[in-house]
Amino acid sequence: MPTKLYFMVGKLFAYLVRLKRLTRTHHNITKILFHGLQLVHVQRKAKRIVKCLLVFLHLFLGLNNEGQVSVIRTSGNPYAHVVLRGGNGKPNYDAGSVAEAENALAKAKVSNKIMIDTSHANSNKDPYLQPLVLKNITEQILDGNKSIVGIMVESHIKGGRQDIPENLADLEYGKSVTDGCIDWETTEKALLEMDAALKEILPNR
């Protein structure tokens, strides 16, 4: 079972993102912590996404309360959920892909809560296509979808991205140095439009 060490770590966080490239130690710790956790997986196939949740029922080597190496048993993080971000250059935010994920999650008897990443392969890495993805998600919820519980938007003060220059003084303030983002004005407009369309529906969903 989880030790005091892991419970102490859990108190430091409210929500985590587990990425594909994290170390095995990070993966194991997230299986014990009892708070929101999104599992980001780059594969489009629903069965791969379900597998991410199922492996949370796990035994692994960790530290006990005395700091000794021991076998840690965990029944998994009950608040884990998947994130659809597309993969292999193809999107998976559409209603068909969401339904496929829902069916696979239901069949495996794991959480059917889904978050959709509006960036990455879901926008073909074009940040300014993200508002179109948001509109599609809005339409799905208006049409009765119950599984979509959150969205991820890559946003910054200024739109686009920049490489890190040799002279850091040349960095442009407020612009991403990683993935391209939409600017704040575009972000605000898109989210306010989504809120206006869904504010009568979400409270009773």
UniProtKB/TrEMBL annotation:
It catalyses: D-erythrose 4-phosphate + phosphoenolpyruvate + H2O = 7-phospho-2-dehydro-3-deoxy-D-arabino-heptonate + phosphate. GO terms for cellular component: cytoplasm. Keywords: Amino-acid biosynthesis, Aromatic amino acid biosynthesis, Transferase. Transmembrane segments: none annotated. Its EC number is 2.5.1.54. It is an enzyme of class 2 (transferase). One of its GO terms (biological process) is amino acid biosynthetic process. Belongs to the class-I DAHP synthase family. PANTHER family: PHOSPHO-2-DEHYDRO-3-DEOXYHEPTONATE ALDOLASE DAHP SYNTHETASE, PHOSPHO-2-DEHYDRO-3-DEOXYHEPTONATE ALDOLASE, TYR-SENSITIVE. This is 3-deoxy-7-phosphoheptulonate synthase. The lineage of its organism: Eukaryota, Metazoa, Ecdysozoa, Arthropoda, Chelicerata.
